[in-house]
Amino acid sequence: MNNDVIVITDTLNRVAARAGDPASLVFKRLFAGHPEAEDLFVRDDSGLVRGQMFQVTIESLLDFLGDQTYGAALVQIERTNHQGLGVSPTLFDSFYLTVMAVFRDLLGDDWTTEMEAVWTRVISDLTARSAVELAE
Q1: Which residues of the chain have pLDDT under 70?
Q2: Cα 61 from Cα 65, distance rounded (Å)
Q3: How far apart are CA 1 and CA 130, in angstroms?
Q4: Phi–psi pair at 70, nearest 5 degrees
Q5: CA–CA separation, 55 and 31 (whole Å)
Q6: Which of 94, 96, 103, 105 is nearest to 123 (CA)?
Q7: Who's near 22: CB < 8 A, 6+ residues apart?
Q8: pTM of the full structure
Q9: pLDDT tens digits for range 99-134
Q10: Residue 106 CB: number of other CB atoms within 10 A?
């Protein structure tokens, strides 16, 4: 297991221990920074779509760090799907940064410079790969 996997999984475990399922916090922050995104979830009364989106985001990130069997391809497909809904690539990529920001806030003083570096690099690599593959 490489260091990035260790840091990411450790972060996920710490966040889960502190907040349980942080999906609602992620979307609250996303909507605060991008109010236009909330309109895309107007029919998601139960939060099921938001929960699934958060789950797929984490799963694709973990796959990207591990086997790389589907993570980057799934992000590429979802990038295309979201563009069809009017979501800009910038807004699409900001979701990952929003997840990281919520995790940073939840962990507070326990958020390390190593976590910041790993999360920033992995998100950048994943979103860049899906954007490049989309352009090709």
Answers
A1: 1, 70, 132-136
A2: 6
A3: 23
A4: -150, -15
A5: 18
A6: 96
A7: 15, 16, 54, 102, 103, 106
A8: 0.88
A9: 999 999 999 999 999 999 999 999 998 888 777 554
A10: 18
For the chain, what is the radius of gyration of the CA atoms? 15
Contact assessment for residue 130 and residue 79, using Cβ atoms and an 8 Å cutoff: yes
DSSP string across 1-52:
--HHHHHHHHHHHHHHHHHS--HHHHHHHHHHH-HHHHGGGTT-TTSHHHHH
State which amino acid sits at residue 119. W
The letter for the amino acid at 8 is: I
Of the candidates 12, 32, 10, the one whose C-alpha atom is nearest the C-alpha of residue 22 is 12
d(CA 12, CA 7): 9
Closest CA to 22 of 102, 116, 105: 102
Identify which of 98, 75, 84 has the alpha carbon closest to the alpha carbon of residue 40.
Answer: 84
CA angle 123, 89, 23 (to 5 degrees): 55
Amino acid at 39: D
Whole-angstrom distance, CA of residue 25 vs CA of residue 106: 10
